[in-house]
Amino acid sequence: MYTYTEFDRAFVRDRVSQYRDQVKRRLEGFLTEDEFKPLRLMNGVYLQLHAYMLRVAIPYGSLTPKQMRLLADIADKWDKGYGHFTTRQNIQFNWPRLIDTPDILEALADVDMHAIQTSGNTIRNVTTDQFAGAALDEVVDPRPYAELIRQWSTDHPEFQFLPRKFKIAITGGSDDRAVIRAHDIGLQLIDVKGRIGFRVFVGGGLGRTPIIGQELHDALPAEDLLPYLEAVLSVYNLAGRRDNKYKARIKITVSEMGIDRFRESVDAAFERLRPAFTGQDLSVLGKIQADFEPPRFLEKSQDGYFSALDSDRHFRTWVERNVNPHKHPSYASVTISLKGHGNTPGDASAAQMRVMASLAERFGHEELRVSHEQNIVLPHIAQADLPEIYRQLGKHGLATANIGLVSDIIACPGMDYCALATARSIPIAQDIALRYERRESKIGDLKIKISGCINACGHHHVGHIGILGLDKAGVENYQVTVGGSAGNDAAIGQKMGRGFSFEELMPALDRLIDAYLAVRIDQSEAFVSTVERLGTIPFQEALYAIDKTA
Amino acid sequence: MASIKLPVVITANDLLSGEAVYWHKSGIWSNDLSGSKVFESIEQAQALIQLVVSDAEVIGAYLAEVLEEGNRLVPRHYREGFRERGPSNYCHGKQERLRQKVVV
Q1: B59 in any annotated domain
Q2: Tell me: the pLDDT tens digits for A194-207?
Q3: How confident is the model at residue A547 (pLDDT cuts 50, 70, 90)?
Q4: For B14, which residue in chain A has the nearest alpha carbon?
Q5: Helix (H), strand (E), coil (C) string for A505-516
Q6: Interface touch B93/A427, C-beta < 8 Å
Q7: What is the mean pLDDT of chain A?
Q8: Which of A165, A365, A484, A525 could form a disulfide linkage to A380, CB 3.0–4.6 angstroms apart?
Q9: Among partner residues B16, B88, B93, which is closest to A97 by beta-carbon distance?
Q10: If you average pLDDT over residues A366-371, what whole number do you get?
């Protein structure tokens, strides 16, 4: 894990101090809301439907147990005893009072955390693979590069007022678990004839104009990363539209310019900017890399693990769904599901946060990760410890064996909290999870993603089944898309037709999933593969067939 | 709002807590929809917004459509319904306070 320097600590403390004064001036009437709003947003404080919301940055989703415990303390002391982990690997608190937010930020600073650049038209938290540094398929650990980008982009004077917000994702595995092609810039670490390089994708994004990112560079040398990113951002900063908020993201800039002309502009900017990078960035990277050395793996007897696999079918199912292969042969990465059936996707209580922190201390080499799919990961776990971890998780409602199944749903907060939402997401996710609890293991891999408005925070466009909640003449209405994908084969799902009312949606999903079960070759053919084989028409027909059971 | 339907009330968010509040007949902001001053004229409501909204007290005042069902005021749009009740996944927000009142 990256360790803050005195410079980092002083910077964060200065921001807390500035913000404390800004809140004081607001409450004393010296700042109007128009003057104060951009200042609070720069520190992650939004105003939502029922209360303020504080979004805390979790850089590339990495947390120490101490940091997780502090998040639990914030939930207990200043919120309602829980936090919501997001698709950008951050955490949101839904109920802070404005007057308490400076104290919360100060508490965060005590454990080297902050909420800077979690809002506004800046470069947001860099996201990455939740198994970074552990995954069997990894070419290079992406976290040092993510940290380098974090340091470069934090308070970057040129990029604080971009045309629109800017999101970067980076993966080091051959299997893309970071949805890099749905980001403004997606980076994939690759081996280029024995040297590290990047495939660079640009102009991806979801929202009202969903676009899969295009390849901008097929093998960027790693040492050119920052000057190249600076070149891309510089071109966007000048060419990006500021006349229309809905056309201001880089995906529109790239679409309007065309990828070839955009690349020419970036190459020209790169030629101009490259000489200014004289090696300090690489020196910083070297220091960062030292912080990301793998932990000292322990050799433990695996007898108990194999015995539990043989004797406990619930444990075996959990291992099959929630445990990922590790670089080290006797280790594994554990995904702790925050998708208990009927629960709010991504929510964890303060007590659950403390349990996860304790497990990371006892068994997990002091590391936790937040996945973009709104679960928590213990990246480095000896297989020998898996039975005990499973037992402990089970005591606290955290042992749901559903990763990748129907109930492992990404859902945005929707109209239950969000001021921008047009419909609810959470109750839809809860209903689906409860309805399919008994059947989901037979259905197999099926990723459902739900957004409560066109901004697509729930990634519905790249769900195998996507659900978008809209307001149709004053009534909640849900559009269904089919065939999206977030992985290496990233694709935007196809809109099936008219939307469904809240009451109509569940029977329609039943028909859709029943149709899949009827036509799949066998259980090994996942939903998305069947859609690929047959196209979407059979599923469209099923969705809009008359509900004979109604 | 493009084609706002009457009657309406004035609503905003409380500066300190962010909670949804309503302008009451008694001339105060309250977190309770019932007791809100109901307007049958958009012009009158907008004129009053200019007079009563204090930037030091509330944020983002606007007009919300309501229905009068007997003696009760009911939000016309479901968004306003959630603002009035609280989220549907937890008993938090206004519904939490109502529950506490019942328990007491």
Answers
A1: yes
A2: 999 999 999 999 99
A3: low
A4: A51
A5: HHHHHHHHHHHH
A6: no
A7: 97
A8: A365
A9: B16
A10: 98
Q: Name the residue facing B18 among A26, A52, A471 (closest C-beta).
A: A52
Assigned fold of A410-543: Sulfite Reductase Hemoprotein; domain 1 (3.30.413)
Is the Cβ pair B88, A426 closer than 8 Å? yes
Are B51 and B61 in contact by the 8 Å Cβ rule? The answer is no
List every span in chain A annotated with CATH 3.30.413.10: 134-291, 410-543
In a domain, residue B2? The reply is no
The predicted pLDDT at position B41 comes to: 96
Instruction: Please write the tens of the pLDDT for every residue from A10-34.
Output: 999 999 999 999 999 999 999 999 9
Please count the structural domains in chain B.
Answer: 1
Residue of A nearest to B15 (CA): A98
How far is it, in rounded angstroms, from Cα A99 to Cα A117?
20
Q: Does domain A134-291 have CATH number 1.10.3710.10?
A: no
Domain that holds residue B75: 8-103
* d(CA B24, nearest CA chain A) in Å: 19
User: Which among A234, A17, A225 has a CA at the least distance from the CA of A140?
Assistant: A225
Phi, psi of A122 (to 5 degrees): -130, -175
Strands A168-171, A127-128: pairing is parallel
Give A84-113 pLDDT, tens digit per residue.
999 999 999 999 999 999 999 999 999 999
CATH 3.90.480.20 in chain A, residues? Answer: 6-110, 306-395
Say if CB A274 and CB A281 are below 8 A apart: no
What is the predicted pLDDT for the residue at A271? 98
Question: How many Cβ pairs closer than 8 A exist between chain A and B?
Answer: 70
Q: Do B89 and A33 touch (CB under 8 A)?
A: no
Say which CATH class A6-110 falls into.
Answer: alpha beta
Q: Token pair 């028909």 is at which residue?
A: A511
Mean of pLDDT values over B53-70: 91
Residue B3 in domain: no
Check residue A546 and give its pLDDT: 65
Stated pTM of the model: 0.96
* ipTM associated with this complex: 0.94
Coil vs helix vs strand at A198: strand
**Interatomic CA distance for residues A24 and A18, integer angstroms:** 10
Q: Is A345 exposed, middle or buried (0-12, 13-18, 19+ CB in 10 A)?
A: buried
Fold of A306-395: Sulfite Reductase Hemoprotein; domain 2 (3.90.480)
pLDDT value at A549 more than 60: no
**pLDDT attached to residue B1:** 47
C-alpha to C-alpha distance for B13 and B22, rounded to whole angstroms: 8
Q: With residue A361 as reference, give the H or E element that holds it.
A: helix A350-363
CB contact under 8 A, B82 and A52: no
pLDDT band at B104 (very low <50, low <70, confident <90, very high): very low
Q: Which of B1, B33, B78 to mutate to test the interface with A (most CBs of A within 10 A)?
A: B78
Among candidates A50, A52, A430 on the partner chain, residue whose Cβ is nearest the Cβ of B20:
A50
Question: Whose CA is closest to A379, among A338, A416, A326?
Answer: A326
Chain B CB contacts of A27 below 8 Å: 15-16, 56
A95 touches chain B (CB under 8 A): yes
